[in-house]
């Protein structure tokens, strides 16, 4: 009786979850499960996946994370692109460490995060730019200690679209008495990745 009950539960679970009995002993199939990846590909080709809900999707790995740690940058102009030269991750090769610009390798919905960290008594306003238009703003205010400001945005992008971080167009909002801001720590970062 117990054996039949266990088998019955297993069969019902398999039917309701849309899983395959011939693969991974009825476990949920994820693309990240290396032991089940071949089964996953065989059993979900051209169909929607229980785990991710994307129909006929190929494996797309696009993500980057960069900062200025070890590479200081002097900001002394309006609309100046912040170039994050320390590349931590650049899957898909969309981020250019020379220009500071992320160019979309393929269409999809992307998430972006950025932060700037200023030394005491300095203020800095930055913008997340999408094809030349501001979509999000960050402010690290002037206080008597180190301060960090950050923001994020989720954007639907087409292949070739460009996203970057730059200084605010109103220089009076952020310039210090020396006429510049120097970014040099890992609190200054820019990251993005493909959601779907």
From TrEMBL:
Main location: secreted
Record's subcellular location: Secreted
Pfam families linked: C1q
Keywords for the protein's UniProt record, in alphabetical order: Secreted
GO cellular component terms given for this protein: extracellular region
The UniProt record lists the keyword Secreted: yes
InterPro entries according to UniProt: C1q_dom, Collagen/C1q_domain, Tumour_necrosis_fac-like_dom
PANTHER family: COMPLEMENT C1Q TUMOR NECROSIS FACTOR-RELATED PROTEIN 2-LIKE, EMILIN ELASTIN MICROFIBRIL INTERFACE-LOCATED PROTEIN ELASTIN MICROFIBRIL INTERFACER
The protein, known as: Cerebellin-1
Lineage summary: Eukaryota, Metazoa, Spiralia, Lophotrochozoa, Mollusca
